[in-house]
Amino acid sequence: QVQLVESGGGLVQAGESLRLSCAASGLTFSAYYMSWVRQAPGKGPEWLSSISNYGDFTRYADSVKGRFTISRDNAKNILYLQMNSLKPEDTALYYCARGSDGKGPRGQGTQVTVSS
User: How distant is the alpha carbon of residue 17 from its chain centre?
Assistant: First the structure.
Protein backbone atom coordinates (compact mmCIF):
# COMPACT_ATOMS: atom_id res chain seq x y z
CA GLN A 1 0.00 0.00 0.00
CA VAL A 2 0.98 3.64 -0.32
CA GLN A 3 3.31 4.81 2.41
CA LEU A 4 4.36 8.44 2.78
CA VAL A 5 6.75 9.41 5.57
CA GLU A 6 7.45 13.07 6.26
CA SER A 7 10.50 14.39 8.10
CA GLY A 8 12.42 17.59 8.65
CA GLY A 9 10.07 19.51 10.89
CA GLY A 10 11.14 21.24 14.06
CA LEU A 11 11.14 24.38 16.15
CA VAL A 12 12.60 27.47 14.51
CA GLN A 13 12.48 31.22 14.97
CA ALA A 14 10.65 33.56 12.64
CA GLY A 15 12.69 34.28 9.53
CA GLU A 16 14.52 30.97 9.57
CA SER A 17 14.26 28.10 7.09
CA LEU A 18 13.43 24.40 7.09
CA ARG A 19 13.40 21.72 4.42
CA LEU A 20 10.77 19.02 4.69
CA SER A 21 11.11 15.64 3.01
CA CYS A 22 8.54 13.01 2.15
CA ALA A 23 9.74 9.50 1.37
CA ALA A 24 7.27 7.57 -0.76
CA SER A 25 6.87 3.83 -1.23
CA GLY A 26 4.18 1.47 -2.48
CA LEU A 27 3.44 3.54 -5.56
CA THR A 28 5.00 4.45 -8.87
CA PHE A 29 6.13 7.83 -7.60
CA SER A 30 6.84 9.37 -10.99
CA ALA A 31 3.29 8.58 -12.14
CA TYR A 32 1.68 11.03 -9.75
CA TYR A 33 1.37 14.68 -9.00
CA MET A 34 2.26 15.27 -5.35
CA SER A 35 1.22 17.94 -2.88
CA TRP A 36 2.00 19.45 0.49
CA VAL A 37 -0.80 20.24 2.91
CA ARG A 38 -0.75 21.65 6.44
CA GLN A 39 -3.16 21.73 9.32
CA ALA A 40 -2.89 24.17 12.18
CA PRO A 41 -4.52 23.47 15.55
CA GLY A 42 -8.26 24.09 15.40
CA LYS A 43 -8.25 24.67 11.65
CA GLY A 44 -8.99 22.59 8.57
CA PRO A 45 -6.40 21.33 6.12
CA GLU A 46 -4.77 23.96 3.92
CA TRP A 47 -3.36 22.92 0.54
CA LEU A 48 0.04 24.60 0.05
CA SER A 49 1.63 23.41 -3.15
CA SER A 50 1.64 20.75 -5.83
CA ILE A 51 4.14 19.50 -8.38
CA SER A 52 3.67 17.59 -11.62
CA ASN A 53 4.98 14.09 -12.27
CA TYR A 54 8.36 15.23 -13.53
CA GLY A 55 8.56 18.50 -11.67
CA ASP A 56 8.04 20.78 -14.63
CA PHE A 57 4.88 22.37 -13.27
CA THR A 58 4.30 23.73 -9.78
CA ARG A 59 1.52 25.65 -8.02
CA TYR A 60 1.43 27.46 -4.71
CA ALA A 61 -1.13 28.87 -2.34
CA ASP A 62 -0.94 32.63 -1.99
CA SER A 63 -0.02 32.21 1.67
CA VAL A 64 3.33 30.60 0.80
CA LYS A 65 4.09 31.84 -2.71
CA GLY A 66 7.56 33.30 -2.92
CA ARG A 67 8.64 31.72 0.39
CA PHE A 68 8.17 27.97 -0.16
CA THR A 69 9.52 25.82 -2.99
CA ILE A 70 8.30 22.34 -3.84
CA SER A 71 10.56 19.86 -5.64
CA ARG A 72 10.96 16.15 -6.15
CA ASP A 73 13.58 13.51 -6.85
CA ASN A 74 11.93 10.69 -8.77
CA ALA A 75 15.09 8.56 -8.66
CA LYS A 76 14.89 8.54 -4.86
CA ASN A 77 11.08 8.71 -4.53
CA ILE A 78 11.32 11.82 -2.35
CA LEU A 79 9.25 14.98 -2.31
CA TYR A 80 10.64 18.16 -0.77
CA LEU A 81 9.37 21.45 0.56
CA GLN A 82 11.92 24.20 1.11
CA MET A 83 10.45 26.76 3.49
CA ASN A 84 12.12 30.13 3.85
CA SER A 85 11.23 33.26 5.80
CA LEU A 86 9.06 31.27 8.16
CA LYS A 87 6.38 33.07 10.13
CA PRO A 88 4.59 32.14 13.37
CA GLU A 89 1.42 31.58 11.31
CA ASP A 90 3.23 28.78 9.46
CA THR A 91 3.05 26.69 12.64
CA ALA A 92 1.19 23.49 11.73
CA LEU A 93 1.43 19.79 11.06
CA TYR A 94 2.71 19.38 7.50
CA TYR A 95 1.72 16.44 5.30
CA CYS A 96 2.61 15.24 1.86
CA ALA A 97 -0.19 13.75 -0.20
CA ARG A 98 -0.58 11.95 -3.47
CA GLY A 99 -2.30 13.96 -6.14
CA SER A 100 -2.56 17.59 -7.10
CA ASP A 101 -5.26 18.67 -4.65
CA GLY A 102 -3.82 17.31 -1.42
CA LYS A 103 -6.81 15.07 -0.81
CA GLY A 104 -5.17 11.75 -1.66
CA PRO A 105 -3.37 9.35 0.68
CA ARG A 106 -1.25 11.20 3.23
CA GLY A 107 1.54 10.52 5.64
CA GLN A 108 1.49 11.03 9.40
CA GLY A 109 2.92 14.50 9.11
CA THR A 110 5.83 16.42 10.57
CA GLN A 111 5.36 19.28 13.03
CA VAL A 112 6.67 22.73 12.25
CA THR A 113 6.64 25.32 15.01
CA VAL A 114 7.76 28.88 14.38
CA SER A 115 8.38 31.13 17.36
CA SER A 116 8.22 34.90 17.17
Answer: 14
* Mean pLDDT score of the chain: 97
Mean pLDDT for the stretch of residues 37-46: 96
| Cβ-defined contacts of 74-77 (< 8 Å, 24+) | 74/29, 74/30, 77/23, 77/24, 77/25, 77/29
Residue 29's φ and ψ, nearest 5 degrees, are -55, -45
Going by pLDDT thresholds of 50, 70 and 90, the confidence category of residue 69 is very high
Q: What pLDDT score does 85 carry?
A: 98
Q: Which pLDDT belongs to residue 12?
A: 98
CB atoms within 10 A of CB 59: 15
Amino acid at residue number 84:
N
Task: Return the amino acid letter for 104.
Answer: G
User: With helix as H, strand as E and coil as C, how does 53-96 read?
Assistant: CCCCCEEECCCCCCCEEEEEECCCCEEEEEECCCCHHHCEEEEE
The answer to whether 31 and 18 are in contact (CB under 8 A) is no
